[in-house]
Amino acid sequence: MKKQAAVLIAMIAGFLVCFYLPVEKIPFDNPITEALALVKWYAREHVLLCLVPAFFIAGAISVFVSQAAVMKYLGAGANKFLAYGVASVSGTILAVCSCTVLPLFAGIYKMGAGLGPASAFLYSGPAINVLAIILTARILGLELGIARAVGAIIFSVLIGLSMHLIYRREEKERKAVSAAVTPAADDRGLLQNVIYFAVMVGILVFANWGKPTSEEGIWFQIHAAKWLITSVLGLCFGAILAVWFKVKFVKVLGVVLAVSVSAWIFPTVPLVPFSVAVVGLGIITFTNGGLARQWFDASWYFTLKITPLLFMGVFVAGLLLGKSDGKGLIPTDWIARSVGDNSVAANLFASVAGAFMYFATLTEVPIVQGLINAGMAKGPSLALLLAGPALSLPNMLVIRSVMGTQKTVVYVLLVVVLSTVSGLIYGSWFG
């Protein structure tokens, strides 16, 4: 207990250091400054709103989704049409980046999901983001938006099937081992689980709802009401904790009051009440015992496993490519000059560069727009859009810790090769 408390205090201290890094006061620009700037930006924009909810969802998958359910729909012996169908369109629900999807991937893979469906989910989570696809169509053109949507869905299935076929012998052994284990009975009803996860996913999605370019239409209206919707979902979640998890009502009420007071004191900084809610949820699950404590322990496991690797990868990505304006060791104008045609080399370079860059949700579109304005051809543009959001250096480090070096290399190569081929085809048709 004391060791865990010390680790938690160290992680909070490290997060606060990253959150308040005085990067803007450094009187010179260099790759290290850019790396620190990217770490600070990541800590401010993604840890509390994206990663922490994702860790809680991943922990919930481990505790509240029965192994029987995972094996039935996503296991090595599951119906392939259903498994890949569910995994390949998951990104339309989860507006997450390549790092936020990792705890969710680790959760379902740990619970016994087949390598193929898990890999399809890993790719589709950040790649098939309906908001990003719409933004691509509006800013970069309808044909590129359609090509990205179709390519991403096909990719997720092809990548999943390829991983399954390459490691089919291991999958057979994994299936045999899973079949020999009798899953524990699930004493929670399906409707309860659906509502429980829908509310958590809703909080994750709406808290991170990006501002559209146009201040008209349904997307902007949702953005304007995102924190109201998140608050309502938070109240529903509090009710779920009290009714289904038997958490004392006074504890839930205390967190609600704390969130309300912080929102009243900081009405223009929604991150503050959201942070208070996160801390309150952590305290409730840690102190309540039973299933709630198991949920906390599972979430804590994923936090310890993933967070250090992510921040290490973010720092290295910033060192190589910079946070913006090409101030890393590899300037962006080099990239633009290397992808000015639809050749094999240009598409391969775009795929590899995209695989190692870090794209936050929706940021790939303005980045690609800037590269297109700098001379990037259409084929490499699609290759970057297909490889970039689904992969990043931090992403690769964590995937390796979950499924090993060899499988990670194969997965990355599949994404890069398919992105390159898609860029070549698209460039030859529309270039």
Classify the oligomer.
Answer: single chain
Q: How many helical elements?
A: 21
Beta content: under 5%
**Annotation, overall tally of beta strands:** 0
* Number of discrete domains: 1
Structural class: mainly alpha
Largest beta-sheet characterization: none
What's the Cα radius of gyration? Answer: 22 Å
Query: What is the N-to-C order of secondary-structure elements (H for helix, E for strand)?
Result: HHHHHHHHHHHHHHHHHHHHH
Overall mean pLDDT:
82
Give the low-pLDDT segments. Answer: 180-185
Instruction: State the helical fraction.
Output: over 70%
- Taken from the alpha-carbon principal axes, the silhouette is globular
From the N-terminal CA to the C-terminal CA, the straight-line distance is 60 Å
Task: Give structural notes.
The protein has 431 residues and is mainly alpha-helical. The chain has one domain (32-430). The protein has helices at 2-19, 31-64, 67-73, 80-88, 101-110, 115-127, 130-140, 142-166, 168-180, 190-207, 217-224, 226-243, 249-265, 271-288, 290-321, 332-338, 344-356, 364-373, 378-387, 393-403, 405-430. The longest helix has 34 residues, at 31-64. The radius of gyration is 22 Å and the shape is globular.
